[in-house]
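Lab notebook, bench 4. The sequencing result for the construct came back, and we need a structural model before the next group meeting so we can plan mutations. Quick request posted to the team channel:

Model the 3D structure of this chain.
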Amino acid sequence: MKHPTLALLLFASSSISLAQIPHPSSGTIKRFENFPSRFVAARTIDVWLPDRYDPKQRYAVVYMHDGQSLFDSTIVWNKQEWGVDEVLGKLMAAHKIRNCIVVGVWNTPLRHSEYFPQKPFESLTKSRQDSIFDVNSKGTHPLFKERVQSDAYLKFLVKELKPFIDSCFSTRKDRSNTFVAGSSMGGLISMYAICEYPEVFGGAACLSTHWPGVFTTEGNPIPAAFMRYLGEHLPSPKNHKLYFDYGTKTLDASYKPFQQQADFIIKAKGYTSKNWMTQEFPGADHTERSWNKRLEIPMMFLLKR
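Done. Here's the predicted structure in token form:
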């Protein structure tokens, strides 16, 4: 099954003017442009602070990928947003979740290379790696503009960005108050982050996780590599929470059988309804609009008081 034209859904959101700052419906945005890194290319970081943010209090932190699509649809290429400010603002106002801030990490033209879990990819034979890279790095809108570099991206998040956020804002630095979230390829890198850094992240929300990795499911060795990796690296259910979901329309229509395989592994590792949730959303497609409609569910699950 192939979806070549849907590549735009995975990386076209990078086409935003750096001069445009989101105007959230609630809270405020603190922007850090061209945030430097020793590991990856510089990028914009948008930090959302809720209404009545008080430096004398401590806040949980949610690190979210594709940061330019989180807060303001008017500045996004497809005029859609997650509505993170509205959803979390309402949940906090109703005292349904703990106080938190959101760190929106912008993607770059290297999005696919940075979000593709590296160790599962490198577990494939060299010829398999080369064939996947060669096929998907050609054409008008190539997926891979460079080799997979998600290990470097995670080092940036953990070793550079998190210390900066913790030094600039009034955060709870511990694992139980540090979360990672994203959709599609952002779902994959969120899954990878909590597996690679279980001492840093206490929960991951993976919406519409793009298990195929590319846009071909027939004869594709990538999902099996992801499943092997999960079986070997899932963190302990004693102090971690996992959320997965998928819709049934457009690109999401291909995810169910892979998610079921992942669910089997997660359950076998000892996860229960106390620390793991997988949801199917009939009729939901692969868009920010769909993720916005259900964002309350994973945020409640991860951040419940």
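Residues 25 and 86 are 6 Å apart (CA to CA).
Will bring this to the meeting.
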